[in-house]
Amino acid sequence: MAVGDRRDGVGANADGDKPCRERNSIDERYRLVAKATNDVVWDWDLEHDAIVWNEALETSYGWPPGHVGPGSAWWLGNIHPDDRGAVSAGLNAVFEGRSDLWSHQYRFLKGGGGYADVLDRAYLVRDASGIPLRMVGAMLDITVRTQLEAQFRAVFEGANIGIVQFDPRSVLALRVNAKLCEIWGAPESEIVGCSLAQWTPAEDAGEREALHRRLATGETLQDRFEKRYRRRDGRLIWARVNLVSQTLGDEVHAMAMIEDITEEKRADARRDALLSLGDRLRELRSNAEVVAMTAEILGRTLATTRAGYGMVDLPAGLVTVAHSWSSDGQVFPSQTLPLDEYPASIASLRRGEVLAVPDLASAPELDTDAALYIAQGVRAVISVPLLRRGRLVGVLYATEASPRAWTQNEIDFVRDVAERAWSGLTRIEADEQQRILNRELSHRMKNTLAMVQAIASQSLRNVTDIEAAKHALAARLIALGKAHDILLTGQRESAEMEAVLTSALSLHDDQQPGRFHLSGPDIVIGSKAALSLALMMHELATNAAKYGALSRPDGRVTVAWSVVAADEDDTIHLTWSERGGPLVQPPTRKGFGSRLIERGLAGAVGGEVSLAYEPDGLVCRVMAPLSGFQGNF
């Protein structure tokens, strides 16, 4: 392919041939260069509108010389119609003298069909007066690069992590993807062209400045770290950052890939908080300490405005809010509120439902409750009920001064905290009950041992028949033991009167029909009265078996009791009466049994006991205040 005009210079002398030889040498070198490159080189004679091309037009783009037109019309006609106008406009701008350099990226038709993406660059040659003479250019095939850029652009834009390209010296953002805009909660227009420093919270400024100084030096970096960002709405988030910065020639390129790990961090914090709460609850010894610790851990972990615990008294219709935690350290005194001020909330909590409201201003289901919450500076609330045997006894809550969308993970966390707090409260309550039981057991054992000592001492005093005394002592101790069994079957130190009587008389029940007849209202009596009454019944039955109605097959015993109303204290009237036994004779002397009957119960309950030896059988009457019988209840 000839480039330029060649003149032979016929008839010229030796000196005249020198310029021609030099020009021919330059043209040859130019031809060889154009032949060696894979890029299309073209030379456009503007005066005659003739373009010559090198072989690369055929070898790289498939256009044989016979199919190539002589002028610019062929060239421009093979540019993609959508790109043709911009190419023409760019050329005209160069011709009009705005610049001698021209560069444009467009799509050029290949000889075999299809378009190649090309980068065309040319230089304009003018005459001395500035009129364009020719334009020499080179067309570079960038199809592969364009495809790679398209692929990169697709990955860049479609990535599930935020990506930002930035100038490491000024830390100005040059390009961002949609995911980064989502992570920071800001449009692209507020990120690109602005400093990345604006997204770092002020409290992390020192760490940020240290990194920026390293970037400004052009140091090659490939770091992976975690840092905090402050979103456009002011909310802090955590991110995992992969940072790459490197120098290519005179340019320094930097890119950061940012993954939002806020929920991951929060999950770690919630897990650590539950472990810490479990460990610390084991060390606490009072309900107040448990409530205070639980509220603090709940509030700090969820980063809420306030958190606390309310103790619910359903019968009284009250809730006592105590030990409330506040993010600003403010101390709130305990306060007791009527439940009927929050009817919708309490109804939901009594059903065992978690109350999680993101914005109380848009919560019609809470009716008037919402207005009370808002009046107290609460816009979002999450409350978890604590139930005992299906009954609401407490509420663990966290509140926010501004609207907040509670996540399911946060709701589950509050549930877990409530369960652990309830376990801690239950343990402390059980420990306290155990301490009370231990104290009462010690007290009861001392009383029982004193009673056993008295029974043994009196039973064995002045005895002449050791065997009879042993049997009497054993029977009395058995009666005492049965009375204790009755007391221990209940949850309190009390028992039904009829149960005490039945147990005490069981030793003497020979299964004869109608042997014993018990009648009277249901009365619960205390432990002291129960033990004394059991021993009294045992002594009466023992005497009846030896000398009275129970010594005969047809003998009968009736025990009846009633409660007589009185102005100051109701009175119990109890009567033991025997029928069908031998003729009754008053004893010539009174032993321990008689004294136990007459004085034991009277001393325990503060009443009066009388024995009447009537012809039909022994009658024992007891009259004592009801409060005396229920004294240990």
From TrEMBL:
<keyword id="KW-0547">Nucleotide-binding</keyword>
<keyword id="KW-0067">ATP-binding</keyword>
<dbReference type="InterPro" id="IPR011102">
    <property type="entry name" value="Sig_transdc_His_kinase_HWE"/>
</dbReference>
<keyword id="KW-0843">Virulence</keyword>
<keyword id="KW-0675">Receptor</keyword>
<dbReference type="InterPro" id="IPR003018">
    <property type="entry name" value="GAF"/>
</dbReference>
<dbReference type="Pfam" id="PF01590">
    <property type="entry name" value="GAF"/>
</dbReference>
<dbReference type="InterPro" id="IPR013656">
    <property type="entry name" value="PAS_4"/>
</dbReference>
<feature type="domain" description="PAC">
    <location>
        <begin position="102"/>
        <end position="154"/>
    </location>
</feature>
<dbReference type="InterPro" id="IPR013655">
    <property type="entry name" value="PAS_fold_3"/>
</dbReference>
<keyword id="KW-0285">Flavoprotein</keyword>
<feature type="region of interest" description="Disordered">
    <location>
        <begin position="1"/>
        <end position="20"/>
    </location>
</feature>
<feature type="domain" description="PAC">
    <location>
        <begin position="223"/>
        <end position="273"/>
    </location>
</feature>
<feature type="domain" description="PAS">
    <location>
        <begin position="26"/>
        <end position="98"/>
    </location>
</feature>
<keyword id="KW-0600">Photoreceptor protein</keyword>
<keyword id="KW-0157">Chromophore</keyword>
<dbReference type="Pfam" id="PF08448">
    <property type="entry name" value="PAS_4"/>
</dbReference>
<keyword id="KW-0597">Phosphoprotein</keyword>
<dbReference type="GO" id="GO:0005524">
    <property type="term" value="F:ATP binding"/>
</dbReference>
<protein>
    <recommendedName>
        <fullName>Blue-light-activated histidine kinase</fullName>
        <ecNumber>2.7.13.3</ecNumber>
    </recommendedName>
</protein>
<dbReference type="InterPro" id="IPR001610">
    <property type="entry name" value="PAC"/>
</dbReference>
<keyword id="KW-0677">Repeat</keyword>
<dbReference type="Pfam" id="PF08447">
    <property type="entry name" value="PAS_3"/>
</dbReference>
<keyword id="KW-0288">FMN</keyword>
<dbReference type="Pfam" id="PF07536">
    <property type="entry name" value="HWE_HK"/>
</dbReference>
<dbReference type="InterPro" id="IPR000014">
    <property type="entry name" value="PAS"/>
</dbReference>
<dbReference type="InterPro" id="IPR035965">
    <property type="entry name" value="PAS-like_dom_sf"/>
</dbReference>
<keyword id="KW-0716">Sensory transduction</keyword>
<keyword id="KW-0808">Transferase</keyword>
<dbReference type="InterPro" id="IPR036890">
    <property type="entry name" value="HATPase_C_sf"/>
</dbReference>
<dbReference type="GO" id="GO:0009881">
    <property type="term" value="F:photoreceptor activity"/>
</dbReference>
<dbReference type="InterPro" id="IPR000700">
    <property type="entry name" value="PAS-assoc_C"/>
</dbReference>
<keyword id="KW-0418">Kinase</keyword>
<dbReference type="InterPro" id="IPR029016">
    <property type="entry name" value="GAF-like_dom_sf"/>
</dbReference>
<dbReference type="GO" id="GO:0004673">
    <property type="term" value="F:protein histidine kinase activity"/>
</dbReference>
